[in-house]
Amino acid sequence: MLDDRYDLEFRLWPYGHVPDQDTTARHPVVIVGAGPVGLALALDLSLRGTPALVLDDSEGAGMGSKAICFSKRTLDIATRLGAGAPMVEKGVVWQVGRVFHRDAQVFEFDLQPDPGHRNPAFINLQQPYFERDLFEAIQRAQAEGAPIEIRGRNRVTAVDPGADGVRVEIDTPDGPYALEADWLVACDGARSPTRTMLGLGFEGRVFEDNFLIADVRMTADFPTERWFWFQPPFDGAGDSALLHKQPDDIWRIDFQLGWEIERSRELEPDRIRARVDAMLSSQTGTVPDYELVWTSIYTFQCRRMERFRHGRVLFAGDSAHQVSPFGARGANSGVQDADNLAWKLDLVLRGHASDALIDSYASEREEAADENILNSSRATDFMTPKTEISRMFRDAVLDLAGRHAFARPMVNSGRLSTPCTYRQAGEDALGGPPETRPGAACVDAPVGEGFLLERLPRGFTLLAIGGDAPPPAARGDIAVDRLHLPAPTAELAARYLGDSPSAVYLIRPDLHIAARWPDFDARAVDRALAQALGERPCL
Amino acid sequence: MPLILDPNLPDPDGFYQELLAAHEGLTKSESDALNARLILILANQIGDRAVLTEALRAAR
Q1: Alpha-carbon gap: A106 to the closest alpha carbon of chain B (Å)
Q2: What region holds the FAD-binding domain (chain A) (predicted)?
Q3: Fewer Cβ neighbours under 10 Å: the N or C end of chain A?
């Protein structure tokens, strides 16, 4: 019998016996783990018409808020997958953050000062809601015939990689069975059993600090902003503290406790309440009624697998890379892994692109992981100085930041997740605005009554702004869709044209920009398509 | 030229990391000495007596 690893918030995919269990079936893509990454990948694949089978050892979304902060890029992806609207509706939209040192504010930021984006810069939403919204989008897609299946209480017990596929052994309440996969994607979390079964390393830095999470339910009229304290002025808060609002009148409170602590003692409700009382009374003068909803102590590491691809086994999300929570770079980067991989697996399985395209998944997302680890490590080094001299510089920055603007950009309480701009990208013959240079994720802008991102189709797109409509383009079996916007809005022009009267962009299916030119050039488009498809240049 | 007290440094996070890395493995007195040398090098680079006087005042 399979035991539960954790309690459920929502039971979504209960176990049921399937005919596969009595045979050894072969599937194009088997995904291990139905967290945010596995669900997004499965949904994306199936909307492209490639069947996705998800194996999950539980039966739904696990209890606990966990990841709470979802970035605009993640919401743009979720919107493309048909799951974004309920997330934004339920989520707490925020864009202002304040940083305090002791009892004085030293810094304030606004994440989305420019108008004209469909989705907000960030929402706070408990992870189980995010997973449920993805699952409900999966159910709607299934109803329309999308080939996607989630099997609950299916625990992978062995992974045997071969040259052109992977054999998987699975335990269920009805006993074990086996199946074969053309591709196996491990989305099974930071402690990835798949990674362990394959004996693959996961090296990086351990940060010697403990953080206490207390999610409390209360009605309080703090603004919906991210408040962060260095050396908080309230008792028992440790070296730093964070206050952030979630839906359902729940507030995330985070205290940095240090390294030498007695874990079980710090999790005693009375002790947690004393800390929370001190924080709340310092802000309001009184302690409002509140309920402790979820508490947890975590330590963290910044690390990644050396390679995300091992033949036909791929790693995505926390199984491949892990960062500190400061900056919201965990779940957000995992969803972007899925976004990068889905269209590539789809094209390779259809025989429209070569196997080398999957190598570009690994190299691009390894690059993104390095960027996230770099930002996360820097934030952590600032927040938890390891030496006397680093503490001295940190305190000097905080001290100066209160008085002088120049020191504020050095204050680092987490650099919030932004999509990686890939280094290996096509040509930039336009030389337009840097935010939309090749390699970058498309920036949204108003178009007519709606927004650019919702107008972009699911495949490769030639986006022509101003100028003439581009002629049809294709490479091999891959047809390129066209979108012509002859009269751009001011925002679209500022973000995509710069000083040029016209522009042509080649946009990948994951809405990253492959290349751009001032005008249509058939040979240049073909070259950029070849590069985006991972084809090696002919010398 | 007056002392610049608005943000003027590209890649502040990268600079901060490099600054701390320069101190790695040093004792406290070695770190203090490094800081002293660094201040003198930067002062020479600035090369403006009035600005340095203002900077000293801002730092105190």
Answers
A1: 14
A2: 28-372
A3: C
Per-residue pLDDT at A537: 62
Q: Is A220 helix (H, G, I), strand (E, B) or coil?
A: coil
Residue A381 token pair: 């080094």
* Interface check B23 vs A, CB under 8 A: yes
Rounded distance, CA A435 to CA A385, Å? 33
Phi-psi region of A352 (alpha: psi -120 to 50; beta: other; left: phi over 0): alpha
Q: Any CB–CB contact under 8 A between A378 and chain B? A: yes
Task: Find chain B residues with C-beta within 8 A of A403's C-beta.
Answer: 58
B31 neighbourhood in chain A, CB within 8 Å:
388-389
Residue among B7, B17, B31 whose CB faces A406 most closely: B7
Of A4, A25, A313, A33, the closest CA to residue A177 belongs to A25
Residues A67-97 have pLDDT tens digits of 899 999 999 999 999 999 999 999 999 888 9
Specify the pLDDT at position A110. 87
CA A403 to the chain's CA centroid: 36
Amino acid making up residue A73: R
**What burial letters (b/e) apply to A127-136, b meaning 16+ CB within 10 Å?**
bbbbbbbbbe
Please state the CATH superfamily assignment of the domain spanning residues A8-91+124-202+304-372 in this structure: FAD/NAD(P)-binding domain (3.50.50.60)
Q: Any bridge partners for residue A470, and if so which?
A: none
Instruction: Tell me how far apart the alpha carbons of residues B23 and A157 are, in angstroms, rounded to a whole number.
Output: 47
Q: How far is CA A189 from the centre of its chain?
A: 13
- ipTM, two decimals, is 0.96
pTM to 2 decimal places: 0.95
Q: Look at residues A279, A276, A282 and name the one whose alpha carbon lies nearest to residue A294.
A: A276
Per-residue pLDDT tens over the stretch B8-50:
999 999 999 999 999 999 999 999 999 999 999 999 999 999 9
How many whole angstroms separate alpha carbon A116 and alpha carbon A130? 24
Alpha helices in A122-182 (DSSP H): 127-143
Dig out the tokens for A404 from the structure.
């002088």
Answer CATH for A434-532 from 3.40.30.120, 3.90.190.20, 3.40.120.10, 3.40.50.2300: 3.40.30.120
Which residues of chain A neighbour B28 with C-beta distances below 8 Å? 388-389
Alpha carbons A130 and A61: distance in angstroms, whole number: 9
